[in-house]
């Protein structure tokens, strides 16, 4: 999938702007606060009808203006498609092939993107909660069954915790809730295991390429409950037994002590834990490899690679890692990169790409 061009009007610090893109690699260069991330954000907005930085759409409208527009054309193996999206005080309007859609869900999904931004480092460095959120979002995108089981699990868990906090908890009621929890937890656990196995295999291959074969990355599921069964029925039974075994302890502590709400993912390179022992560059490469693995997942899903948006990653990677990242990826995936300095870019990759100089809301190709 290729984004051939984009036009902005009153988007962030852009008045009007028309850009034509390179099918492989596009680099936005400029000092801080000139509008580089705003350009990536406009592509993300064109794809998903929302920003990756703010939940308040009106922040996207240029100061003192009424409505922001983003238009673009995507080409796939089969067709070329114009997309347009605008946002005003009245809300958002989206068009596919010049026809307005009544629901945004009919708009989203035509342009697929994967974005890597500095805060994605938290997938590695942050708390287990950040990693669970990452699995929930990514796994939820490809599996409705997962989303349903997770949402039911969370609801039953909240109810059970309320019962556990009562002065004289209704033990029978808690046992009924435990049965339901076992059922939902089994689905959540098996889907997570499958998702992490797949993404782990892709990430390991990508990490090997970026590190020039010197590092072997392992992404592993660290379930809170150590289980043995690998089918839903047996696992539900196994979990039921474990929840029952833990009930006296849970009554004493007044909370649910075991379950997928306490799961985690671990990352190791050549056998050592990345979170504890990894250098900054290794942690960043790990987070990047995991995000880039999504490119492969989306390709499996929709049959085309999405476009890749890389915000401010180059300065953190050494020249070899940069070169491997940009050369191995750009031949498969159209890539958009922001950087503050051209010297960040390895000269070996300075062909077959287009650079854009960004200065105070003006862009020169
Ligand atoms: N709604 C808006 N209207 C006008 N200007 C805006 C609006 N929102 C943000 N800006 C301006 O956009 C600029 C920031 O742009 P952006 O976040 O793209 O910076 P950047 O070039 O990526 O910088 P850095 O290298 O620091 O990340 C700031 O000058 C900010 O004032």
Overall body shape: globular
Counting DSSP E segments of at least 2 residues, the number of strands comes to 15
Overall average residue pLDDT? 92
CATH architecture of the largest domain: 3-Layer(aba) Sandwich
**Can you summarize the main beta sheet?**
6 strands, antiparallel
- In terms of DSSP E residues, the strand content is 15-25%
The CATH topology assignment of the largest domain is: Rossmann fold
Number of alpha- plus pi-helical segments:
9
Rounded radius of gyration (Å): 23 Å
Low-confidence runs (pLDDT<50, min 5 residues)?
none
Protein name: DNA replication and repair protein RecF
Function: The RecF protein is involved in DNA metabolism; it is required for DNA replication and normal SOS inducibility. RecF binds preferentially to single-stranded, linear DNA. It also seems to bind ATP.
Pfam family, one: SMC_N
Family: Belongs to the RecF family.
Entry summary:
It is built from 9 helices and 15 strands. The protein is an alpha/beta fold and 365 residues long.
Write the layout of secondary structure elements.
Layout: E1 2-11, E2 14-20, E3 25-29, H1 36-48, E4 67-75, E5 80-88, E6 91-96, E7 99-100, E8 113-116, H2 122-125, H3 128-142, H4 144-164, H5 171-210, E9 217-222, H6 232-253, E10 264-269, E11 272-273, H7 274-277, H8 280-302, E12 307-310, H9 319-330, E13 335-339, E14 354-359, E15 362-364
Parallel strand pairs: 3-13, 3-14, 8-12, 12-13
Antiparallel strand pairs: 1-2, 1-4, 4-5, 5-6, 6-7, 9-10, 10-11, 14-15
Helix pairs in contact: 3-4, 4-5, 5-6, 5-8
The structure holds adenosine-5'-triphosphate.
Binding site for ATP: 30-37
Subcellular location: Cytoplasm
Family: Belongs to the RecF family.
